[in-house]
Amino acid sequence: MLSHLVAGATVMAYIVSAALPSPDNLTLDAVNTRYILRWNWNHYPTNYSVLFTARYTLSNREGDPSAHREKCVRTTERSCDFSDVLNYSAMYVLTVMAEAGGQRSNWSRLMFVADEDAALGPPSHVELEPGDAMVTVRFREPMTEQNTPMSSLLHSTVYFRLQYWKKNHPGQKHEKEVDTTERTLYPLEPWTEYCLHVNAFNRELNKTSADTQPKCVTTHGNKLSQMLLVSLVLLVLLICVGSWIFWRRRKSLPAKYTFPGSILQKAQDPISLPLFPPGESYTVISMVTAQDEQTRPLQQVEGQDYPEPELNMGFSTQDRVLL
Q1: For the residues of 154-173, what is the DSSP string, one character each?
Q2: pTM for the whole thing?
Q3: Which of 32, 269, 291, 319 sits between 20 and 30 A of 64, alpha carbons compared?
């Protein structure tokens, strides 16, 4: 009789303890070596806070209760981060259960193999350096949570796919596949804005990352064109400045030749006019004759010749025209 009562009490305790619904819709947010288990629990309201416990074990030891290791214990969160405890090349079973008001749910279960189920993350720290009709691209390959390259875990080469296009022609994309984290795209059109994004992929494990956010940059022209353009601008400026200086100086300079006032006055007389035929050019020379009384007396003795008088055409002694 007593044994029947004990058995009945055990059954009742099991029923009560299992009365709480289990978490459902278990998913693992797994990228590179970041592993975050998430779940839902949207059941009837309770007067108690619902707490969750998540644990993990190797798949080949799932039947051994002592092999299960708790990671998140009695948390109100509906997620648990396993990034620091799971190995990339091992197979695991992750479980989570709910408890509230002295009741517990059954364990919900998810199988996880990191190198098969975890996605490959995109490259990071993408930098674009424009050049003369070219763009140099630099970036970092996908990294683990411990900040080491993912290629060290994959044990195979990680390749990168670069897609680039003119910003005003997004439908005309060009593509290059490389196995290094730096590449120069050449030749491109000078003075043109190009956009680019990068993704990573691994052929052995058939993994491809998401694309990085597009980045854009404008290429430069080649140096010869730049030099010619600068030289042309400088030449135009030099011509303009030189012309302005010449104009200012010419405006401020006096006339090169100026006729004496007496010549300009005599040129008005009728006798003087034949000396200046129209259309002829002349050189005007101002001459002063110094006469020595000893060599050339103004008056000679009677009976001797007098100096022949000079012909004065209406000019003074100081103004003579040399024909």
Answers
A1: HTS--EEEEEEEETT-TTS-
A2: 0.63
A3: 32
